[in-house]
Amino acid sequence: MILVEQLSKTYLTKKGSVSALDRIDLQIATGEIFGVIGVSGAGKSTLIRCMNRLEEPDSGRIWIGGDDVTQLKGRKLRKARQKIGMIFQHFNLLDGKTVYQNVAFPLVVAGHPRERIRQRVREILDLVKLSDKEGTYPAQLSGGQKQRVGIARALANDPDVLLSDEATSALDPETTYSILELLKDINRQLKLTIVLITHELEVLQHICDSMAVIENGRIVETGPVAKLFLNPESDTARKFVGVLEQYRNRRGLIEGLGEGI
Ligand SMILES: Nc1ncnc2c1ncn2[C@@H]1O[C@H](COP(=O)(O)OP(=O)(O)OP(=O)(O)O)[C@@H](O)[C@H]1O
């Protein structure tokens, strides 16, 4: 279970302060895929980055597997971070290192023996279906393959939680689909809790069990994903669902016209 309680974060800028998160409360069940959706600037990245302390919240608590991660320091924080994997929109791979070295990196940092690292990297590359790319450099990979390396690296230390920061936003629809399917498989096989942020309703619809809608740093709606489509309550949710319906209607119209030709 992940519990977020009254989490707040304000950025101080030259132009004044920006409230990015305003007393956020969330409850995420172990083993579920939980989506946070919102428009640009709503606070999604700040929220997910607070979960592994890439960002420091001003106040509030984040409980992950019994630990309040906001209170951890030093070695305990490093240990907790090993159990929270993260994947990014632009993959964040080490360009000068091979696929093998990228995936091995967190294991080397964690101080595992070389033989254990080799065994684990091979296992994980097999899981993400990149066993044939061990010696390849990121520049020689497609976007989808890069994200698979990112996922493999995030899973190397066998985390309990995977955070996904717009992991499919830079990918074409077909590759997005394959990465979402991979995340679903991983969630099932490893019983891994996944928290993902997105501004794409289709991503939420395809993969998430539950969701929260974030608007101007506040959670304005939460529940099962189906609820969002059947009964959107917030302005953000209504806009997202409205745009998707318009798009589907237009596509239906175009396909209908096509049939008449
Ligand atoms: N390092 C920073 N310094 C100052 N302001 C920031 C910083 N990071 C984010 N913000 C501001 O905080 C608010 C929330 O930003 P955040 O990146 O969390 O939103 P987001 O929903 O992830 O947006 P996007 O989808 O565009 O990435 C925005 O107003 C943003 O401009």
From TrEMBL:
* Keyword Endoplasmic reticulum assigned: no
Q: Outline the extent of the ABC transporter domain.
A: 2-241
Per UniProt, the keywords (alphabetical) are: Amino-acid transport, ATP-binding, Cell membrane, Membrane, Nucleotide-binding, Translocase, Transport
Which Pfam families did the record assign? ABC_tran
Q: Which InterPro entries match?
A: AAA+_ATPase (IPR003593), ABC_transporter-like_ATP-bd (IPR003439), ABC_transporter-like_CS (IPR017871), MetN_ABC (IPR041701), MetN_ABC_transporter-like (IPR050086), P-loop_NTPase (IPR027417)
Q: Is the keyword Transport assigned to this protein?
A: yes
The record's annotation in PANTHER family points to: AMINO ACID IMPORT ATP-BINDING PROTEIN, METHIONINE IMPORT ATP-BINDING PROTEIN METN
Protein name stated in the entry = ABC transporter domain-containing protein
**Which superkingdom, per the lineage?**
Bacteria
